[in-house]
Amino acid sequence: MIGILAAPAQARPGGTGPYPADYETTLRLRSHTVYRPETLPSGIRLPIVAWGNGACSADGTMFENFLKELASHGFLVIANGRPNGFGRTDPEMLTEAIDWAVAENGRLGSKYRGKIDTESVAVMGQSCGGLEAYEVSTDPRVDATGIWNSGFMSALDKRKLARLRAPIGYFIGGPGDIAYENAMDDWDRLPSGLPAFMGNLDVGHMGTYGQPNGGEFGRVGAAWLKWQLKGDAQARQMFVGPDCGLCGGEWSVRQKNLS
Description:
The chain is of the alpha/beta class. The protein has a single domain (2-256), classed as Rossmann fold, CATH 3.40.50.1820. It is 27% helix and 23% strand. It contains eight helices and ten strands. It has helices spanning 2-5, 64-71, 92-106, 128-136, 155-158, 180-188, 215-230, 233-236, and strands at residues 7-8, 21-26, 29-37, 46-52, 76-80, 116-126, 144-148, 168-172, 196-200, 252-256. A ten-stranded mixed sheet has the order 1-2-3-5-4-6-7-8-9-10, sandwiched between helices. Helix 6 (180-188) links the parallel strand 8 (168-172) and strand 9 (196-200). Helix 2 (64-71) runs parallel beside helix 7. The radius of gyration is 17 Å and the shape is globular. Residues 1-9 have low confidence and may be disordered.
């Protein structure tokens, strides 16, 4: 019965947030890896973050350090693919992750019952996973989209940018990132009035995900989610205005419609 609900995949909590996080698997969502605070906190509900891996890989632990960092700040992060899995994923798996989280929040007997903030949802992904996030970002449940080291490659796909409706954040690895030109071109094509942030850090296509706690990308990613999904005013200061926390330092920053 324990395996049907959720079986811990390992016992090595991580992250710098107030809720050390680990990952687990569940037979109710067989093709995913769920990152969450090791001990589900009382008094708060966890916003949902659906994550697509680079190369559309079905390895749910490909970005383990980074995703544990996000979850440690009080998020339920669901990655496409099982731990150390293989094969390829698709955008529909991000939708499946959101569907599962919503269902678990209301399911009798679920340890997540009443503990998930189903009104606060982000879709994010790296490289090919970022393209998956683009595809799902039009879901009316999605409140924010995160594009990491990614951008549309074809003119036909770029037409899809007109459908974007949720605030979007780009986190790119600078001119040395193979996705840089595509991401910057997407930025110029975003719908008028769409709130958007663009941050470039000169670390290349693979970013800092593999560093302890996801490195700088982990720090910034957690702050962006806290602002977008929790309304954290301190986290907001990192991204908004000419004197934002990421402005004038190692990050190259652009902003649109952020107030």
